[in-house]
Structure formats: C-alpha cells, structure tokens
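Message: Just now I want nothing more than another pair of eyes on a protein record. I am handing you a single protein, as its sequence and its fold in token form. As I understand it, each token names a local backbone shape. Take your time, and here it is.
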Amino acid sequence: MTHLLDAEAIFAVLGPFAMGFALVLGRVVGLMATTPLLSSPLIPNPAKAALAGVLTLFVAFGGGLEPPAVDLNAIALAGALVGELIIGAVMGLAVTIAFGALHFCGQMIGIQMGFAVANVVDPSTFQQVGVLAQVLNLLGTMLFLAFDGHLLIIRAFMESFAIVPLAGSDPQVGAIIGEIIAQSALLFEIGLRIALPVVCVVLLVNVGLATIARTVPQVNIFVIGFLVTISLGLIVLGFSVPSTATVFESVIEDAIRSAIRVTRLF
C-alpha cells in the first residue's frame, strides 16, 4: 500500500498548485520589472521580493489559485514562465510609456528655456536627465500616487488572470507589437500637448528678443535673454500644472486600459 507521505503522491497532489504559484510569481515579477515606482532601484531588493511574494499570495489565496489546465513538463513549464513574464512586463510597459511622455515634455521645455546644459541624476534610474524632466517626473510620481494609479494597475493585473489563464496564452505577436507602437507614438503627442503652452510662450519671447536685438543693437540680449525666457517659462509652467495633472490622470487611465487591451491579445 502506498504510504501517505510518499513523495510521488504528494507531488501529484501539490505539484499543479506549486506550478501555478510559480507562474503567478512570474507574472508578478514581469509587472514589477517594468512598472514605475515598483522597478525603482531605490527600493531595496528584499523589499521588492517581499512585495512580489505578497502579491503572489494575494492572487493565490485571495483570488483563488487554479492550477494550469494542462500538464506541464520541465520544458513546457519554462516556456509558460517566460510567457507569464512577458504578460506582466507588457502591462507595466504601458504605464512606463505614460511617464515617458512627461520626460519628453520636460526635455523639450528645458531645451527651449536654456536648461539643456544643466543635467541632474535621476534617482530612480541613475541616468542623467534634464532639470525640468526630473521635476516633471517627480510631479508625475506624486500624481500617480495621489489618484491611486498604483492601485489601478494592480487591479488591472488581477483582471489579467481572468482574461489570460495561467499557461493559457496564445499571443498574437503582430497585434501586440502594433498596440505597443501605437502607444509609443502617443508618447510624443501627449508630451507635445503638455509642453505646448510653455514652448509657445518661450518662442514668442525669443521672437521679441530677436526683434529687439535687430532694432536696438546696443542692448546685450545674451545678458537678459536667459533671465527673461527662464522666468516666463517657469511662470507659465507653474500655471499649467493643474491642466498637466488633469491630462496626466487621463493618460494613466488610458495606459491601464491599453494594458488590458494588450492582455486580451495573449
């Protein structure tokens, strides 16, 4: 008679659930690797591992973990893990693109205002970025937390398990790439939309300074030019913060809806 603690019997019962747990963890890791804030190097790795474990347990016990519908050998399990990583990474990438719009906006405004030569180190990526790009990134981070963007992406992540069951993905590669390219194209459109007020004001100021330089050559435009453009640019940027917050909130919501649309293509 088979012993109750026989290893093969235990694996036959618990093995599918262990595989399901590993697949859920793979999708969680993929999401955390590309989602802003969660992927920040400022967060210690033990904290990231603990958060990944908590999210996995929440999905497993809170949402009801269902073992994979198909039997998986070692090779199939490895392929399924890669698929789960890609699903989570693509969902996080949609939100990252929204933050990229703010970065693009800050770089464009900084160049127009004369901040192109002043760079700082972004603490979230340890890369050199423009001063205004860093300011807008921090603003976007605060807004993302203020209107519960982190909770929205986790909610969409929970819905992804109902859309794509574990080890049940059948990706439409062409459609997925097309959706990602479309979202990337919106990055420039949204960045231009946010930067347009400041860029227009700075452009008009530069035209006026050029006119003064041509009509009154005695005036040293290089002395007052930077002061005027930076001052007016910062004033207009300050007045445009409320509208920027509204636009960015809608962008985050659209990004999360896009993440769900992409998930349906797997």
